UniProtKB/TrEMBL annotation, chain A:
It comes from the Bacteria. This is Heme exporter protein A/heme exporter protein B. GO terms for cellular component: membrane. Pfam families: CcmB (PF03379).
Automatic annotation (TrEMBL), chain B:
InterPro entries: Cyt_c_assembly, Cyt_c_biogenesis_CcmC, Cyt_c_biogenesis_CcsA/CcmC. GO terms for molecular function: heme binding; heme transmembrane transporter activity. It comes from Alicyclobacillus macrosporangiidus. It comes from the Bacteria. It is a multi-pass membrane protein. This is Heme exporter protein C.
From TrEMBL, chain C:
This is Heme exporter protein A. It comes from Alicyclobacillus macrosporangiidus. The keyword Nucleotide-binding applies. InterPro entries: AAA+_ATPase, ABC_transporter-like_ATP-bd, ABC_transporter-like_CS, ABC_Transporter_VariousFunc, P-loop_NTPase. Residues 2-208 form the ABC transporter domain.
């Protein structure tokens, strides 16, 4: 059994479950759109926000909305014990992490697209001068956030306060990613803001760290 | 406390008083900041000690995962608690320093920002520990978090530094060059703070370890009683 | 074969299992019954590789149990270990795939039929009755034809017919050389073990 095939099976599992009952997507997309709307009110319906501010608002919403949905699939794992069934399988347990990471990133990207649409409509940011970079920021942001959120969700899955603890652990750990994607988005909107390369490196480096480190400790996290 | 820790307490106390003398009286005022520079000794020394404490947490977490045993977990948790206290001192003294110098309680200086994130990271660590049930599970999960958190610290610092240097910065922290008397005072301060850290860690870890032993004995006694009852 | 070597386990520093040495023999039926809270399920979880012993090792053919060793173990615990939002067939296909069973789809159909669930194959497991879930759980554990089968109360929640058919499957797997290790408190059942075991003060003891 190659790890790659196990990965595909596990990915298929999450996508199938989410397609049948899109709880992650529904929860985080609706909450995210609501957040964009409330932010618009909080900023007194400002017509033109500076590019830095408006991109910060977008990512704050995406990060916060992701923490709302991230426990949905852990819940499915625990409900009938399916997650333990997967742990029994002759599969390297880091594969379980990677499959969940990719599926969570896909769902974050999907709900992030909905939030970005609401954000364009309601907060009226300038159209991206560099659409490719904007798309990269969204994609890489979803991937990095998916990784750290999956890891934190695994840590807090057995705590009494997991709904509170997840954002509390996630935000400090994700600061490098957060700064990176906010700066990249701002740059995509307003190219005079400069220095995108540093932030591309920062975001990619963060994703690389997420590739390596959970692989080292995930096995221990999953065992009772 | 045993004799060893009394000795350590004595030395730490003596060093502490000597440090107070050096920092507050002996060392010269700085040209621009005047006497305010004296806060810096406490600020920087506690920041360094906090980093050392978190490094110990990291190493103990690695030890737990690689070698196993409750000792590692006890050291890891106690060191994080003390490190959090030192981080709090760093933040408070930083704020006190910033107010007269930059006319604000808080500035987005990269080091100060990183320190605050550090505070949140390890406050999260202690919260995570407090909400996990099951001794063995708590030890493993919090060790995994401690490892990730510590590895994240340099990445956080780098990204925050880039972020602030690309912005127009209020503060230029290229630093001032210290005369030997100031550098010496600072090193002395660090030494006495670090010694105090060791003393606290020793006392705290010993207390926690004894608590564990009591728990273990209690469990053993319960087991024996059960055995006797059922044996009859 | 699956073996335990000096396995001890503690929860909250309370020793549950102490120094257990045990080796399973192929084609042998083991029945473990002991009072609640004596560590039966803990022992089963350690043998399955779901839980790490505090001391000691779990061995597969003399080497520490690793993912490749887990390929030869089938497990039924109290929970059915399936996904409620997948159909019965999808669940079996997923696990057949994870165990590297050739032609997972075919195997899933075959086992649904054997479990008497062919009509429920396209129903979400969420809507299954307890007995149906239990039969699905046993099918999930057998789909990769394991050499060791570990069971925690496999006859629980089944009616008489269901108990007989599951007991029949177990005997059939034993005849193929599979070692079956079952935890049950109900000993007067449809299933006759070769070796009866119990846990006494955290140690595994042969009764008969």
């Amino acid at each position: 059994m190659t790890g790659w095939r196990a990965f595909l099976h596990l990915l298929w599992r999450d996508v199938r479950i989410e397609a049948r009952r899109p709880q992650f997507f529904a929860a985080s997309a609706s909450f995210g759109v609501l957040l964009v709307f409330v932010t618009g009110i909080a900023l007194d319906a400002a017509e033109h926000l500076p590019a830095e501010w408006v991109s910060g608002v977008l990512w704050l919403d995406i990060f916060y909305a992701a923490t709302v949905g991230v426990h949905r699939h852990d819940f499915k794992d625990q409900e009938w014990g399916g997650g333990e069934g997967v742990l029994l399988a002759p599969v390297d347990r880091s594969m379980i992490f990677y499959a969940r990471w990719v599926s969570v990133s896909l769902f974050i990207a999907a709900s992030g697209l909905v939030m970005a649409a609401a954000w364009f409509l309601l907060l009226n940011p300038p159209p991206p001068a560099q659409p490719g970079l904007f798309a990269f920021a969204l994609g890489a942001g979803a991937l990095g956030l998916g990784g750290v959120a999956t890891f934190v969700a695994a840590l807090t899955a057995h705590t009494r306060l997991r709904d509170v603890l997840t954002p509390l652990l996630l935000f400090p750990l994700a600061i490098p990613l957060f700064i990176g994607v906010v700066r990249l988005t701002a740059y995509a909107l307003e190219p005079t803001l400069g220095h995108p390369r540093v932030w591309v490196a920062d975001v990619l480096g963060y994703i690389a760290a997420m590739l390596v480190v959970p692989w080292l400790v995930y096995e221990w996290v999953m065992e009772g | 406390m045993n004799r060893w820790s009394w000795w350590l307490a004595g030395v730490a106390g003596a060093l502490g008083f000597a440090f107070l003398y050096l920092a507050l009286i002996w060392s010269p005022p700085e040209q621009q900041m005047g006497d305010l520079v004296r806060i810096m000794y406490f600020h920087v020394a506690s920041a360094w000690t906090a980093l050392c404490a978190f490094f110990v947490t990291f190493v103990a977490a690695l030890g737990l995962l690689l070698r196993g045993g409750e000792r590692w977990d006890v050291v890891s948790a106690c060191s994080a608690e003390i490190g959090l206290v030192y981080t709090t001192i760093t933040l408070v003294t930083g704020s006190l320093w910033a107010r007269p110098i930059w006319n604000t309680w808080w500035t987005w200086d990269p080091r100060l920002t990183t320190t605050l994130i550090l505070w949140f990271l390890y406050a999260g660590y202690l919260l995570l520990r407090a909400t996990l049930t099951g001794f063995e599970r708590r030890a493993k999960i919090s060790a995994a978090y401690a490892i990730i958190a510590f590895i994240d610290v340099p990445i956080i610092h780098m990204s925050v530094t880039w972020w602030r240097s690309i912005h127009p910065s209020v503060v230029d922290d290229s630093g001032f060059h210290m005369p030997p008397s100031m550098a010496g005072t600072l090193m002395f301060g660090f030494l006495s703070f670090f010694l105090l850290y060791l003393l606290l860690l020793w006392l705290r870890a010993r207390g926690a370890w004894q608590k564990l032993e009591i728990l273990r004995l209690g469990q053993a006694v319960r087991g024996l009683r059960l055995r006797e009852e059922r044996g009859r | 074969m699956l073996a335990l070597e000096g396995v001890s386990k503690a929860f909250d520093l309370r020793p549950v299992l102490e120094e257990i040495d045990f080796t399973l023999a192929p084609g042998c039926r083991y029945l473990l019954s002991a009072p609640n809270g004596s560590g039966k399920t803990t022992l089963l979880r350690i043998m399955a590789g779901l839980s790490r012993p505090t001391r000691g090792r779990v061995l597969w053919n003399g080497a520490p149990l690793d993912p490749r060793g887990r390929r030869h173990i089938g497990v039924v615990l109290q929970q059915p270990m399936v996904y409620g939002d997948l159909t019965g067939e999808e669940n079996l296909r997923l696990f057949a795939g994870l165990y590297g069973v050739r032609d997972a789809r075919q195997a899933a159909r075959r086992w649904l039929e054997r479990a008497g669930l062919e009509d429920a194959g396209r129903t979400l497991v969420r809507h299954y009755s307890k007995g149906m879930r239990q039969r699905l759980a046993v099918a999930r554990a057998l789909i990769h034809e394991p050499a060791v089968l570990l069971l925690d109360e496999p006859l629980d929640g089944l009616d008489l017919e269901g108990r007989r058919s599951v007991a029949g499957w177990l005997d059939e797997t034993v005849s193929r050389g599979t070692a079956v290790f079952a935890v049950m408190h109900d000993t007067a059942s449809e299933w006759r073990p070769d070796v009866r075991l119990t846990l006494r003060w955290g140690r595994l003891v042969v009764v008969a």
